Please model this.
Amino acid sequence: MCSMQRTTKTTKQTAAGCYAERHAEAQDLLKRIASRLADHQKRQAAVPADWGYTGDLGRITEQLAYVLADLGDRSAVDAKGLEY
Model:
């Protein structure tokens, strides 16, 4: 595994191999985010007057805008007026 932790076993990791592992990890995280976002929406629907859920999504969408910018698309950070 391409980790920053040191292990006693020495294996030669390639950039392509490490990229593939991290890409799979990112895809897994995106699936988990989608699932948790759906759960969040259900919880918000149970108490629609609770502004806390709106605040959660404000923070989350800012973080996702930065992720998108890191991948080469600044449109979301620019639209939100965020510094990048």
